[in-house]
Amino acid sequence: MPYLGLFGVKDSLISLTQSHFPTPARAPSTDPSTRSPPTPTPTPTPMDASGAPPLILAAAAALLLAAALGWLLAARSSKRGSARLLPPGSTGLPLVGETLRLISAYKTPNPEPFIDDRVARHGSGVFTTHVFGERTVFSADPAFNRLLLAAEGRAVGCSYPSSIATLLGPHSLLLTRGPAHRRLHTLTLTRLGRPASPPLLAHIDRLVLATMRGWEPASTVRLLDEAKKITFNLTVKQLVSIDPGPWTESVRREYVKLIDGFFSIPFPFAHLLPFTTYGQALKARKKVAGALREVIRKRMDDKLENGCANGKEDDKIEKKDMVEELLEAEGGSFSEEEMVDFCLSLLVAGYETTSVLMTLAVKFLTETPTALAQLKEEHENIRDVKGKNQPLEWSDFKSMPFTQCVINETLRVANLISGVFRRANTDIHFKDYVIPKGCKIFASFRAVHLNTEHYENARTFDPWRWQSKNKLQSAVGASLFTPFGGGPRLCPGYELARVVVSVFLHRLVTRFSWEEAEEDRLVFFPTTRTLKGYPINLQRRPDSVF
Ligand code: HEM
Question: Which GO terms describe its biological process (predicted)?
Fold first, then answer.
């Protein structure tokens, strides 16, 4: 799914979250202007012809024919008439367009040239290409990106392939549109946009500490795995108020298979092919949804038994979790299935992104010792004032300005979501171009974040760049910094993700020292992460108290 970093066309998937970035310490000293594309994943793999039923073969042939026709039309239109108004570009080879070039770029440690070269060749930050069976306009232009984000739901709409939509469920926030989307988005923001609430902050702190308590005084851990545990348990708590235990563990086992499905090839009739990753993901989805349904049903029954709590007084009482928000919202009109899909999509949405953000922040800091030293000092100062054992409070979070610079810079450099896909609902006029109704558009955040015109030494991890006053506001205002998107689909978890990572860094640097257990590197296919999950050797600090 585009948000998760997957871009699917027909039966293919391409990761959007692709973010390539050389590790800061090894970043090239030169800083070519960088523009970034989405991340490729495997192209649609045709079903094995030998064993395929005739119906499938006929469908496959029809698809191929449609793709060929699409390509021919795109190629013709780029040469004459109205298509002269399309942003410049090339449709590449018949059928595959430029898909293979895109994929191979993202399989290297430096995928930037896919966009850079085209921007340079066409002299335009907006260009046309043809990937995954579809003509697609790429934007590396912050002004156009802003327009696209703001126009969501009107001139453009987000578009997900059916394979992703099936895993998410029809009532997922990511799939709803129009007034229903606005209502659900506001509700989500109300819940997730309040990490300042004392119970939530205390809970994040407790969860992080509980995970770290599981680490031996001297041990090797794969940081990404640990970060994922924290993120999953935290989201479950936010949704249904269940603490880590056998229930969360059994749901997590299925959930991991579901997540794998987003990055797999959705073979036709996958529900009949349980040995494929996508087939297993479909099964896992049923189990995760079933577990959530059981909890939600029980809560609905409890509510019926205890009577509705819709009075004025109750509105003022902070809801204990997302299910309670849903049960109370809109006169309690959400159906069980709507609530299940909604919770499931929240569980999916922040998992990979927040965990990789935590891991990469530690990796970049490890490779930039001066930044790590400054960060440690900031957190030790907080501890000096509070004493060793006190839980973190909101005022402590507010005393972490350098930590926020580290998080901003990790987001800028890592590009966990390298951009978002939209589809034009109408002809779109931008500069001298017209992007026709129905056309797919990719707004690349990464291309902007790594562009030397906007950021000096754009490919170097430099958290100090965010220290200057108002830098963040002006970068966000000009759409030069959009790691969480913008407009009506602005990520509702943006504040929560920051708080989780801040608390995690606080507890890590004040209780442990560490070094890389083995060399690890960033990979960008099918998503941005480190190849080995960043194994580190941890040493508990002698003065740390648990
Ligand atoms: C580093 C962490 C994160 C990053 C970089 C990130 C990034 C994004 C981006 C770029 C979008 C916009 C997608 C679009 O416009 O199509 C988005 C949407 C969304 N995010 Fe996040 N996100 C993060 C964490 C979270 C967390 C922790 C949650 C919730 C627990 C969350 C929930 C969502 C949801 C539900 C949407 C869809 C909103 C809608 O369609 O209205 N995200 N996120």
Answer: brassinosteroid biosynthetic process; brassinosteroid homeostasis; sterol metabolic process
Determine the Cα–Cα distance for residues 414 and 40; give it in Å rounded to an integer: 16
| Candidate of 160, 355, 484 to mutate for ligand 1, largest count of ligand atoms within 8 Å of Cβ | 484
Residue nearest to atom 36 of ligand 1 (CA): 491
Rounded alpha-carbon distances, angstroms, from residue 251 to 245, 247, 538: 10, 6, 29
Tell me, what amino acid is at 34? T
pLDDT at 13 over 80: no
Q: What's the pTM value of the predicted model, to 2 decimals?
A: 0.85
**Cα-based distances in Å from 269 to 266, 273, 383:** 8, 7, 56
Whether the link from the prior residue into 526 is cis, omega within 30° of 0, is: yes
Which atom of ligand 1 lies nearest, measured to the CA of 416? 5
* Cβ count near 275 (within 10 Å): 6
pLDDT tens digits for 201-257? 888 999 999 999 999 889 999 999 999 999 999 999 999 999 999 999 999 999 999
Q: Given the cut 0.95, state whether the ipTM is greater than it.
A: yes
C-alpha–C-alpha distance, residues 195 and 210, integer Å:
19
Beta strand 440-444 with 134-139: parallel, antiparallel or unpaired? parallel
Q: Is the CB of 419 under 6 A from ligand 1?
A: no
Take residue 224 and report the two structure tokens written for it.
């990404």
Give the number of the atom of ligand 1 that is nearest the alpha carbon of residue 485. 10
356 lines ligand 1 (CB under 6 A): no
The DSSP string of 351-420 is: HHHHHHHHHHHHHHHHT-HHHHHHHHHHHHHHHHHH-SSPPP-HHHHTT-HHHHHHHHHHHHHH-SS-EE
Task: State in Å: Cα 490 to ligand 1 middle.
Answer: 7
- Classify burial at 135, counting beta carbons within 10 Å of its beta carbon; exposed 0-12, middle 13-18, buried 19 or more: buried
Q: Is 491 annotated as a binding residue?
A: yes
User: Ligand 1 within 6 A of 6 CB?
Assistant: no
